[in-house]
Design brief:
This protein is globular. The chain has a 15-stranded antiparallel sheet that branches. The protein contains four helices and 15 strands. The protein starts with a helix and ends with a strand. By secondary structure, the protein is α+β, with helices and mostly antiparallel strands. The protein has one domain.
Length: 313
């Protein structure tokens, strides 16, 4: 049961990529500013892996500090990782990845990540904080094209209102704040950049499956990420309106569709902006339901303002 819950966690909570990116038809793409559009894709990739690191750390601590006895020194399998080993004090764990396929089968990860609980005795406790660290880096390789990034640094995750994945399945709400400050991101073009991100995720069970709402919490304006991209340009990412996705799979947690129902996200880099609005269908109509499978992209640059629609499913 625990393994299935941890698999559900990875499927239900890690939804960053669909929040930002989609496969575009280059021949029909009216937005030809490669730098600005590439930044949107890079931010999506980094954000997705940041979320996955946070989710794996939370899953490990949920096991380590759970109600079952004799967890000390125990090793268990987790979807998307080779294994997790609980430390002698039950307050920390180590996650091992060796070319491990992700739960969705779209990427492979290699590296070692440590997670430690501070200030509480259980990850379920309201206000509990875990620190997740990859000292030597976690290498993530996309299966479809071989592109990869190396993530180093710390993630500090707060379980704001308490609770666990088991509670989520029974109808409770989980609220997690993720603070990744000073991450080092090495891209496949040989560059290494600093990257900060801070966001709040609210996770609830709905009739359609599981809903995930993502908000920027760095300041009142919704700033969610800052840093320098692989081209050396400073950037910011702002969540103008909370992003809300739903698994759109009812009780079939193992086969989520992850449609983004609503939200607005803006990427700013080099005096240019790319604003992504979610919740459209393929007919370019705003629907805000599980029929949503299209985003509207507005590009603002020094020479042009362009609008385009892209279907991602």
């Amino acid at each position: 049961m625990k393994k299935s819950i941890l698999k559900f966690a990875a499927l239900a909570i890690c939804t960053s990529l669909v929040f930002t990116s989609c496969k575009k038809n280059k021949d029909a793409d009216p937005i030809d500013d490669g730098a600005a559009v590439a930044q949107a894709g890079d931010e999506a990739a980094v954000n997705e892996e940041s979320d996955q690191i946070a989710d794996d750390g939370g899953g490990a601590m949920e096991f380590a500090t759970g109600s079952s006895k004799a967890r000390i020194g125990k090793k268990f399998d987790m979807c998307g990782a080779d294994s997790v080993v609980v430390a002698d004090n039950n307050m920390s764990a180590t996650i091992y990845y060796t070319n491990s396929p992700s739960c969705d089968g779209k990427r492979f990860r290699t590296g070692v990540v440590t997670v430690a609980l501070s200030g509480q005795t259980s990850w379920k406790t309201a206000g509990a904080v875990i620190t997740i660290e990859s000292v030597n880096g976690l290498r993530i390789v996309r299966k479809n094209d071989g592109k990869n990034i190396l993530v180093k640094g710390k993630h500090v995750v707060t379980n704001v209102n308490g609770g666990s994945l088991y509670d989520l399945l029974s109808g409770s709400t989980l609220v997690h704040e993720i603070n990744a400050v000073g991450m080092s991101i090495s891209f496949d073009n040989g560059t290494s950049r600093n990257w900060d991100a801070k966001r709040k995720r609210t996770i609830t069970k709905t009739n359609d499956g599981v809903s995930v709402k993502v908000e920027g919490i760095m300041n009142a304006n919704g700033l969610a990420a800052t840093g320098t991209n692989k081209k050396g340009d400073a950037f910011t990412t702002t969540i103008n309106e909370a992003l809300v996705a739903n698994s759109c799979s009812g009780l079939d947690y193992q086969n989520p569709k992850w449609n983004v129902l609503s939200g607005v996200k803006t990427h700013t880099v080099g005096g240019k902006t790319v604003t992504v609005t979610y919740g459209y269908n393929a007919a370019k109509m705003k629907v805000g339901s599980c029929d949503a499978n299209t985003i509207k992209v507005n590009y603002e640059g020094p020479k042009a303002s362009v609008e385009g629609f892209y279907t991602y499913k």
